[in-house]
Design a protein that fits this description.
alpha/beta, Quinone Oxidoreductase, Chain A, domain 1, Rossmann fold, seven-stranded mixed sheet, 10 helices, ER, YIM1/Zinc_Alcohol_DH_Fams
Length: 306
């Protein structure tokens, strides 16, 4: 099979489009013919070596955790899926080596769910990691209908999912973003505010009594969030360890079939869309990394594989 491979840590330049052996399929896994793979910041951070203190990472390494594709074969005890089934997955395993930037990937069934019919292959590939992050962060703070949520970096890949999920659950959403993204946030159902100095005053102008929950997808906003929260423990961050000292929650997304299925149901009900900022052929994964590193995309970056 063709795959993107690196033989050591480095920048996008270490990625090579080459041939690799087809994956072995364990008893609780399925073999997926990849149609598209999502590109997330964690992918280039792994290749750069930033996660080396946290995870066992082996070379040669095929990056990638997000996938959308078609089941080609099922392991001996993988009874949940049959060849021909269309699936999506956040294929994070205990150790990092055999990722989704390839024509074939072996995925444990615990990482998969059925592909939403309403989404294209590109959109479906962009959903799992970012969608699950938003879904699980909102659940961790207990966001409920009728409450007000403050979402930091609301126009980003994770933030735009958090806005849509919160709105679907009946929350009022105030989202921070640069002014060029305000109309985009309004289209998702959020009330936009500009981030930066004076943010607390701008949020107070919209919610004089404060907010019920806060979701941080950018970092550096724990203090301002704490000033705005009615209950300071109802904050989750995916980037900032300080949130734990403040009584909130640090969220590291987990593979979860039930959560991924719930996201797919929202998509099929027309309550969740996946904006795709750019799509690259598999051979141009390095360019996808460079775009992701710029940090200015609105929507997902994906690789077209098939």
């Amino acid at each position: 099979m063709k795959a993107i491979v690196t033989h050591g840590y480095g920048g996008p330049e270490v990625l090579v489009h080459t041939d690799r052996p087809d994956p072995k399929v364990g008893p609780d896994s399925v073999l997926i013919r990849v149609r598209a793979a999502g590109v997330n910041p964690v992918d280039w951070k792994i290749v750069a070596g930033y996660l080396d203190p946290l995870m066992y990472i082996h070379f040669p390494l095929i990056p990638g955790w997000d996938v959308a594709g078609v089941v080609e074969a099922a392991g001996a005890d993988a009874t949940e899926y049959q060849p021909g089934d269309e699936v999506i997955g956040y294929v994070r395993k205990d150790e990092v080596q055999h990722g989704t930037f390839a024509e074939l990937v072996a995925a444990p069934v615990r990482t998969l769910a059925r592909k939403p019919a309403a989404l294209s292959w590109q959109q479906a590939a962009g959903l799992p990691l970012a969608g699950l992050t938003a879904y699980q962060a909102l659940r961790r703070v207990g966001g409920r209908a009728g409450e007000t949520a403050l979402v930091h970096a609301a126009a980003g890949g994770v933030g735009s999912f958090a806005v849509q999920i919160a709105v679907a659950r009946g929350l009022r959403v105030i989202g921070t973003a640069s002014e060029p993204n305000h109309d985009y946030l309004r289209s998702l159902g959020a009330e936009p505010v500009t981030y930066g100095d004076g943010l607390a005053d701008r949020v107070r102008a919209l919610a004089p009594e404060g907010v019920d929950v806060a979701l941080d997808f950018v970092g550096g906003v724990v203090d301002v969030s704490q000033r705005l929260l009615k209950d300071r423990t109802r904050m989750a961050s995916i980037t900032d360890d300080e949130v734990k000292a403040a009584g909130g929650h640090l969220v590291w997304v987990r593979p979860d079939t039930a959560d991924l299925t719930a996201l797919g149901e929202l998509a099929d009900a027309g309550r969740l869309t996946v904006p795709v900022h750019a799509a690259f052929p598999l051979s141009e994964a390095a360019e996808a990394f460079r775009l992701s590193q710029g940090g200015r995309t609105r929507g997902k970056i994906v690789l077209d594989v098939s």
